[in-house]
Amino acid sequence: MRRTPAALLAALCLTITAAVAAAPPAASAAQDRILACPSIPSGHDPAVTTIVYRVARGFNADDKVMLSAFEAGWVESHMNNLPCGDKTSLGVFQQRWDYGWGTAEQIMDPVYASTQYVTRAITCDRNNPGYSAGQVAQCVQRSGFPDRYDQVAAKARTLLAEAARTASIAAGSRTDVNGDGRDDILTFTQNASADVYVAPSTGSAFAGTSVKWHDFFSIGGETASTGDVNGDGKDDVVTFAHSNTGDVYVALSTGTSFGAAQKWHDWFAPGAEIGAVGDVNGDGKADIITFTHNPAGDVYVALSTGTGFGPGVKWHEFFAPFGEYPAVGDVNGDGKADIITFTQGPASAADVIVALSTGTSFGAAQKWHDLFAVGAELPRVGDINGDGRADIVTFTCDADADVYAAVSTGTGFAGTTVKWNDFFCLAGEFPYLADANGDGKDDIVVFTKGATNDVYVGISTGTAFLGGAKWHDFFGLNGEATL
Ligand SMILES: [Ca+2]
Ligand SMILES: [Ca+2]
Ligand SMILES: [Ca+2]
Ligand SMILES: [Ca+2]
């Protein structure tokens, strides 16, 4: 264990350390510090919004309950884990320990607080189907100002969209689950049944509909990923539970299904951190990486032993803080996966930064491109020209539906505004890279979701992506995680 929930809590409570540290019983500690907040931060804490989102997804909250959580959190705390409040109110939802919400320490854990909110909101929504999101919030919060929640719906939607984007960060891991050299597609339903379906590549299509490879893996709010964690040539599935358990589960591929879920780590990528998979030490077994994605910007690694992940070790001190889009890929072709971050600012600040793996740590951050994946674009990492070095691709996923790429030279990414495809990935669709035809060059894949649930592939020629061809006509529904 490298960090404990208690340590996190202590960090959150810095402003009141003396009172908390000196008073062990929960209630008396709380009573010592019941003060109105001197002020509430004007902006939200992205770690809090991400946790609220993940917890709500974990309970399969519908859109209304999800929105209600963000309305309530904004009204009560501007989505901050406040160690203070009116009377005995605490935390993101300003819950009161003396009104049956839990102990003060529990309420100051945003996972616990979100769980309390969401479970009550789901019940209220079920019992009152005609309620607005704000009325659901009031039903849970019982505020003296019941109209405030619906009034902040627009702000809540903005924060919700940001949290959903953070939770869907996924930029590069192999998906050849049957080990035939062609990447396949997977979908994790992430609902109550938590099924995992696979459609293997035939080289010109993804075959099979409703072929279940696992019947309970990666529930809502978890991060589903892939990688060959035991080095047998078949990619396995990995899920980061986040929340307060920090568990990481693996299910090994047999070539035709995934075996039983096994816990390979019990404290990695907790809370709002971003988990990823890649072979950072080049031993043929995929390891796990987590970006704390907060102002500290730490990066931890846990190496695969083939049967588990070892202890979490810090491999970088500052990389991909919140707002940036972290990814993993072997950009210099030495066999060891490196870390990449897209800063995603406006055109003047859309840099791509790389830190190369030494096998035991990530080296100094280096800028490899200074204009790529602007704003809300969706960046991905993969070897699109088949030279063994991972390249970068960005999808606008808007009405232009453009796809730009820059190829690795081993010391930088070359090419600015070089379009590799001019119509691929519309708004709401999910793009990915995969070597669908097994020629060694990564192709573009898009899951349309929406009403059609199609999957299109644009084959790489090494210098461009061909027009999209439909490889599957029903795979990956709305709300599912597709890779
Ligand atoms: Ca494997
Ligand atoms: Ca490894
Ligand atoms: Ca490398
Ligand atoms: Ca390449």
TrEMBL record:
The keyword ATP-binding appears for this protein: no
The leader peptide range reads 1-21
* UniProt entry keywords in alphabetical sequence: Signal
- Spell out the SUPFAM superfamilies in the cross-references: Integrin alpha N-terminal domain (SSF69318)
Protein name (record): FG-GAP repeat protein
Instruction: Provide the species name.
Output: Dactylosporangium maewongense
Q: What lineage is this protein's organism placed in?
A: Bacteria, Bacillati, Actinomycetota, Actinomycetes, Micromonosporales
